[in-house]
Write a structure and sequence with these properties.
This protein is mainly beta and 753 residues long. The protein has two helices and 60 strands. Strands 45, 48, 49, 51, 56, 57, 58 and 60 form an eight-stranded antiparallel beta sheet that branches. It has an eight-stranded antiparallel beta sheet with strand order 46-47-50-59-52-53-54-55, with no helix packed on it. A hairpin with a 5-residue loop joins strand 8 and strand 9. It starts with 57 loop residues before the first strand and ends with a helix.
């Protein structure tokens, strides 16, 4: 049975249903538009739920189960009290023993109060499902009584009176973890091996009329965790830890006949043996699984399959177990603790992200990134999702182990809606460049918005409230590319200021702090030579206070600055208006926004100034960007004694080192190159070749990020005390070619020009 306004199936766990719509994914390209062109949309289609969390009452424990209908949300789990939104634990609490009901539109509890208890051990509600007519709420878990009425891990609640149905009782031998309901049948999944005194291994079905056990038999050899009925009612989708159903090999997923339980479709070898199915949901054309794995090389992501033939439509390969999935308006929303989606072209291994969205037709991550923390319990963050409508709004509720939502305290429950979108994008980080006479180049790091990828940027000049330029750009949290616009309506010797806003079409950031620059009358010799020699990354570190290292190479290869390094250090390494940056030797570094393929030929160039005796990495290539890399080479580091080392991985660690120390508090020009056999490795300091090995022409093959100021040095010879460099760095450049000795010496000679 369907809710006409939302497409919600009122049985099962009240998950989303898809609305019929043609979907298309936005490309990641950056496009420019004229002033006054159409702005970005408030939500980037097909996303239709905002990332703005709404005020919601909290639990003092874990929410394992949700069901929703008629504007009411039912929550079950392992908790004992509720408290108001934003209230600290222990504040204004009211009893709620493993169950509560809420108004979907306000987030406040209703007067339906039930207590799920057990005589020994810890009672918990692990599954909830509404009957298609909404009259009965079925609850499963581990409990022996509801409001004192004796039951056995399974109960039926009359929703009108909020009382246990005494005419619906059947004994289930162990925990019920999932439920699905049709007009005449309740399907159960869990740990049990008997139902109603008869053998049923982990899956069973009972009649809604009198709780009598039905012939349906789908015996599994391991725990069952998910169950859904196909929209046509003909089949049941099973998920869990199992390797066999009714003796036939099918791991973690199976499709069985809704009446008999006999296999319709098996999935031997389809899901990794160390992975399980934690949740299943459906829409009109497909079904979708959330998967959890243990150990290396496992499958943790989501799978989309067609209902027409039960074959795979797509699967993603994010790492970080998926616990809950829900479909709304053509988008699959999921709760997980995803930490590495690099295998599918998204974010590399980094701190966990707990809420994601994808098109039902494409696994590409969509720009929807509200977040929770891991919380308590295992901990893994979100555990369950459900949806209902009330008034003119649809609501997505999320329950789990988390204790924060969008970085603010909020435990156990949160909710989102299909509008209004109230969150503004981040304020753009802006940097100005005056390398060429008669021009000011305005560069900025694209912003981040939790539910919008395509943002509109407006540039304001000299305090005007009318933008001088408007453009759009696509960005997500792991990919915030540099945009650039050149102002030629300037006079040499005059000073101009610029501010930029970012807008999602509804919400606009405040203007960025004003940045000023004076138009140069001559070309700066040093940066001109770096650019003419082919640098494809060139960071001059002239920003004020931001996370942005703008790229002056023309290749828009910008960097992120992490943990607040010291900006605008003077005197800089090279004459002119440019400044240097200082790193603390503890946790500060910069990394390239863009992930790069292995460079087979390359040169890295930078200037350093330090008195450290703890060494540290100066520049290098690593596979991660927000934590220490697990693969790392193509780097220059300083030993504790101040000597410099250039190293690559090529059939083992290969290094060359200087004989002199360079931790004398003076600026030093450092260049490392690697070319083909005969050129090999070379390390230059202050314009002179200091070490070389012409026989080492290879390095380790992996995609990665250029990092400056720190990264892993584990396993490298004469490893210094610190992975991070304490000192000043300036004028960092990377080239896809091998600089010659004459080019290197020419760069050094231009330092005072």
């Amino acid at each position: 049975m369907m809710n006409g306004s939302t497409g919600q199936r009122t049985g099962g766990r009240g998950r989303f249903r898809a609305a019929a719509a043609a979907l298309c994914l936005l490309a990641g390209a950056l496009t420019a538009t004229a002033v006054g062109s159409s702005p970005a949309a408030a939500l980037t289609p097909p996303v239709a739920i905002t990332a703005d969390d709404l005020s919601t009452w909290q639990t003092n424990g874990i929410v394992w189960a949700l069901a929703a209908g008629d504007g009411v949300v039912y929550a079950g789990g392992t908790f004992s009290t509720l408290r108001p939104p934003k209230a600290a634990a222990g504040t204004n609490e009211q009893p709620a023993v493993n169950f509560a009901a809420f108004d979907a539109a306000t987030g406040a509890p209703t007067d339906c109060s039930l207590s799920f208890t057990i005589s020994s051990g810890t009672a918990t509600v692990r599954s909830l499902a509404l009957s298609p007519d909404g009259d009965t709420l079925y609850a499963g878990g581990q409990f022996g009584a509801v409001n004192g009425e004796g039951v056995s891990n399974f109960a039926a609640i009359d929703t009108a009176t909020c009382t246990v149905r005494s005419n619906f009782k059947i004994a289930v031998s162990a925990t019920v973890r999932a439920l699905a309901v049709t007009s005449d049948t309740v399907y159960l999944a869990g740990d049990f091996t008997s139902v109603g005194g008869q053998s049923r291994s982990h899956f069973a079905a009972v009649s809604t009329a009198g709780a009598s056990l039905l012939p349906f038999t789908a015996n599994a050899d391991e725990v069952a965790r998910a169950i859904e009925v196909t929209p046509d009612g003909q089949n049941v989708l099973l998920g869990g830890d199992f390797f066999r159903i009714n003796g036939t090999t099918t791991h973690a997923l199976a499709v069985v006949d809704a009446t008999t339980g006999q296999l319709t479709k098996s999935y031997a070898g389809f899901i990794h043996n160390n992975s399980t199915v934690q949740d299943i949901t459906t829409d009109a054309t497909g079904f979708y699984t959330g998967n959890e794995g243990t150990g290396g090389g496992v499958f943790d992501g989501r799978i989309a399959l067609n209902l027409s033939d039960f074959q795979q439509r797509w699967r993603d390969t994010c790492l970080g177990a998926t616990q809950a999935v829900a479909v709304y308006s053509g988008v699959l929303y999921s709760g997980s603790h995803a930490h590495d989606c690099s295998s599918m072209g998204a974010f590399p291994d980094q701190p966990r992200k707990h809420l994601l969205a994808q098109s039902v037709d494409d696994p590409t991550l969509l720009p929807w990134f509200p977040d929770t923390n891991d919380g308590i319990g295992e901990p893994v963050g979100p555990r369950v999702m459900t949806q209902t409508a009330k008034g003119d709004r649809d609501y997505l509720w999320v329950g789990g182990e988390f204790t924060t939502v969008n970085s603010a305290p909020q435990q156990g429950l949160t909710r989102f809606a299909n509008g209004p979108d109230t969150g503004a994008p981040w304020v753009p980080n802006v940097s100005l460049s005056t390398l060429n006479p008669g021009k000011i180049e305005v560069n900025w790091q694209t912003s981040f918005d939790t539910d919008d990828g395509e943002l509109t940027y407006r540039i304001y000049k000299d305090g005007s409230n009318t933008p001088i330029h408007t453009t759009t750009g696509y960005s997500v949290f792991w990919n915030r590319p540099q945009l650039s616009w050149t102002d030629t309506d300037v006079v040499p010797g005059e000073t101009y200021s610029y501010r930029i806003t970012a807008s999602d079409g509804t919400n606009t950031s405040v203007k960025s702090p004003a940045q000023s620059a004076t138009v140069t009358t001559t070309t700066e010799a040093y940066p001109a030579r770096v650019r003419s020699d082919g640098a494809t990354l060139y960071w001059r570190y002239d920003e004020g206070t931001s996370t942005f290292a703008h790229d002056s190479s023309g290749d828009l290869n910008n960097g992120f600055l992490r943990n607040g390094p010291a900006y605008r250090q003077t005197p800089a390494a090279v004459a002119g208006p440019s400044t240097a940056i200082g790193f603390n030797g503890t946790n500060q570094y910069a990394y390239s926004n863009r992930q790069h393929p292995q460079p087979t030929r390359f040169s890295v160039e930078t200037w350093i100034k330090t008195t450290t005796n703890q060494g540290g990495k100066i520049i290098g290539f690593g596979n991660l960007n927000q934590q220490n890399s697990t693969r790392h080479d193509k780097h220059v580091y300083m030993r504790n004694d101040g000597r410099l080392v250039f190293g690559v991985q090529s059939s083992g660690t290969r290094t060359i080192a200087t004989s002199a120390a360079y931790n004398d508090g003076q600026w030093h020009h450092v260049v490392a190159t690697q070319g083909p056999l005969g050129q090999g490795m070379a390390l230059y300091v202050d314009g002179q070749l200091r070490a070389s090995n012409i026989l080492v022409s290879g390095n380790e093959n992996y995609p990665g990020y250029w990092r400056v100021g720190g990264d892993n040095l584990s396993g490298w010879p004469n490893r210094p005390t610190s992975n991070f460099f304490a000192g000043q760095i300036d004028e960092t450049a990377v080239y896809p070619t091998t600089l010659t000795g004459s080019q290197v010496s020419a760069h050094y000679a231009l330092r005072n020009s």
